[in-house]
Design brief:
Chain B: One of its GO terms (biological process) is tetrahydrofolate metabolic process. The complex is a heterodimer. Chain A is of the alpha+beta class. Chain A contains 24 helices and 52 strands. The chains are: A alpha+beta, B alpha+beta.
Chain lengths: ~1000, ~100
Amino acid sequence: MTQAFRIPGAGRVDHAKPVRFTFDGKTVEGREGDTVASALLANGIHLLGRSFKYHRPRGIVSAGSEEPNALVGTSRGPGRSEPNTRATMQEVWDGLTVESQNRWPGLDFDVGAINDRFGRFLPAGFYYKTFMWPRSFWDKVYEPFIRRAAGLGRSPTEPDPDHYASRHLHCDVLVVGSGPAGLAAALSAGRSGAQTVLVDEHAEMGGTLLSEPGVRIDGQGAWGWLDAALAELRGLPNVRLMTRTTAIGYYHQNMVGLCQKLTDHMAAPPEGAPRERLWRVRAGQVVLAQGAIEKPLVFDGNDRPGVMLAGAARTFLHRFGVKVGHRAVVVTSHDSAWHAAFDLARAGVAVAAVVDVRPEVSRVLTGQAEALGIEVLTGHTVTGTTGRLRVASVRVNPVRGGRVGAGRTIACDALLMCGGWTPSLHLFSHTKGSLAWDAGAGAFLPDRKTEECEIAGAGRGLWGIAAALDDGAKAGAAAAKAMGRVAGVGTFAVEADRTGDGVVVKELPTDRNAGLAKAFIDFQNDVTAKDIRLAVREGMRSIEHVKRYTTNGMATDQGKLSNINGLMIAADALGKEAPQVGLTTFRPPYTPTTFGALAGYHKGSHFEVTRRTPIDAWAEAQGAVFEPVALWRRAWYFPQFGEDMHAAVARECRAVRTQVGMFDASTLGKIEVVGPDAAAFLERMYTNPWARLQPGRCRYGLLLGEDGFIRDDGVIGRLADDKFHVTTTTGGAARVLNMMEDYLQTEWPDLDVWLTSTTEQWAVVALQGPNARTVLEPLVEGLDLSDAAFPHMAVAECTVAGFPARLFRVSFTGELGFEVNVPARHGLALWEAIWAAGQPHGITAYGTETMHILRAEKGFILVGQDTDGTVTPGDAGLDWAIGKQKKDFVGKRSLQRPDIVAKGRKQLVGLLTEDPKVVLEEGAQIVADPNQPLPMTMIGHVTSSYWSEAMGRSIAMALIEGGRDRMGEVLHIPMPGRTLRATVAAANFVDPDGLRLKV
Amino acid sequence: MLLIHCPYCDETLPEPEFTYAGEAHVARPADPMALSDEEWRDFLFVRSNPRGTHYERWRHINGCGRFFNAIRDTVTDKFAMTYRAGEPRPNLDALKEAAE
């Protein structure tokens, strides 16, 4: 394809370096330095995609990151595809694949465009009004329809093979935006010696200067001055320049997030290079020099390919050497578009007319237009355009005294519009800085600041290169001074600066039926002027409601082009002034940001830590299947000889009940509580009595919140008068320690107690089963293990397998049991010693699943599974664990609250299914009468449910209203397709009298 | 990400080192059993939840481990000051006047 619209030698692209990429499968040639948008325009391609709702043909509107229309899919090789890339920001390289979006079967002919014909039946709020009832239609009919009909690009389905980096950066002055204001600010700050960072989202620094080569600064052309300024900044060791870097968010205390694109512009990225890098910058001062964004004008047919912003046309001309058409018409309410017309005319574009809505325009402008042979149409409006896939003509009408006169048609292949400029204050808005309407500037300008920042240049309504340079220099110097530097304010001699002003308008007047006009405000979400007016007619008063009802400004561009136009029209419809209606809030990120950049290194196995016990490697070598518990990975079960989970768990359960099993309990939370007041402290924290517990004995401890609900539990052993070994649940360790510290530091600072987390200091091996003592006894030195000398709930310090140990005689299975604690570094050796010693006695390693079943067979609760933060000790059947003589403990007062003592609370009971082979689903709801009408009254739910090998049937635990008064009652569990029956029973299924512990 | 001054370490450090711990100056009653149901309810559940100046607790959990108090504006998220647990509730207006 030839580049018929390229001006040889013009612009900043490298004409000696052609670049070939594909667009919808066709090869397109551009130049190094092109964006996808400029390369396509150089080849006369304006049609880039179909719109979101009406599938209308759409082209390129802008030349920057504010682009609402020209969104394309880009592909950089297998797995490396990205939807909704802005064609105006993506640089071209050899081999880049670009596809248009949201069209079927093709871009030129799209079936979805039927929506456009029926557009009057798809007004604002259409989805709210139509897809309301019946509820069941949502999943099957409405949602699939909406998803198919709407939408932009397709998400990639493969995992992202790229990696993303992240860094922190601290600096004195961060300057966002490298146009004249930002450059001048960076020069002031940089020359003062302040640590300065200058960032810009484009591939090149310079901003507006890149589109204004005719301006002369300090006796040089704009581009020569730019080169010199950048060279000076690069030469300063305290200045860092970052291109392709977007300031995505401005957060508290001057933290700014930067997303730096590193490789998307490269044909051959260096091996291993990250695709993007997220910078978290903490700046002493921030200078926002983001400039201003040009506003479109709102008229019928303002969305056809070939209709674009006048400033964008000027950028394509000067920066890329591309003419956006052969015959252009300009329509404007601002002086700046006149200069665009002049530049295009001088470059050889036939500019048929400049249409200005203002009746009076400076004679300087009209004179210059006439000299260039451009027809001047002041006091005119645009009332329509023609052209199916590209604008072919524009209809213009005179406006006199508020009356729209007869129209005439002017042929064109490009229509350039300008509705004035909106200061780009998105980042300022992130800081909750307030904006105030400035009638003179016709824009919202920064008002009250909340952070240490300066706003410079067009961002605060200043216009022209000279004003921006001066303002930027002042802002940079002020920022440097605030950081304790001595900073001068540079001055600049600017010639051929093109200043000007304009007026703010709502939709342009028309002689046609405005109700039939397709005058777009939000191009990306297909919101028209009449949608806004409809929303107001239907009762929306707040701009926030108008926004949500019409979806104006809610697309991926966050309304960068549409917000002010939407506001002006809403204000007009409401009969109010713009400042009274107010503005919606911009939120981070400034432009769409990849999940990869935000995730950085935190993906895959680096997403969060995996905690492993000292015995983990042994379990892995044995082929254990693991499950995550809190951040730990724990052996779930140990399949052997090709067993499935059921068979393995049944074997493990049998072994513990008949011989002996061993279990890695190292993940149990452990807190060492020491000090003269240790017993008094535990008295206050736990429900149980501790004062008279003898050293060498343990007790089950129950911890409540102040609200009386169960928080945690565990066995606590007293090693000495002033020393307790507290165990907690695996998941609750950190929470319990935090709670203890809270009370100790802030409620009872008078207590002399020290708390230390020892979870990772001890490896714990549980040995459970009738043969447990037989296996352990030969390994123990310094302790008589007989039942008389070391009974159930005893604790002692001794030596096990040659290692110093804390030995507990405890049971979470109902069998004779011991838990051996040794310093973590000896954990694996201890495990292997016990494993070897147990071989003649049928020792079997078991995992967490078997542990859960064995404890359920005894009715022992798992906090967080059988309790849910609304269960009291009474509900759980744990009243016996409350010290009746104690005057106070955490949560005691709440046990007398009216709701807690009320009848009919849910109580934890056992449940036996009628069919012993059926294992209930955990979480299943329980009803008393299965024949009651829907919706049924649910009286509880299943909390734990397993196949019990010992019972030869299923068992379950459940929280049921008044459960303990329902013993023997048959209840019902409705499940899909069938209703199960089960009988309420005591939650203690195996050895209810606990005889197996007394051996 | 906020920067928070720990009054024990006397250093201003990033937010991930800290955890929030609810409203400050809500002391556990000396004898909870002597309280009426309403009084106990208020202690358990009723908080000031202001729009503006909030006296609240933080813990330097990934640092010295100490609980301390802070005055933060819930609208702007700005800290007026932090102070040690157990110190009396500062009078913010008096502090502002003294600063001026």
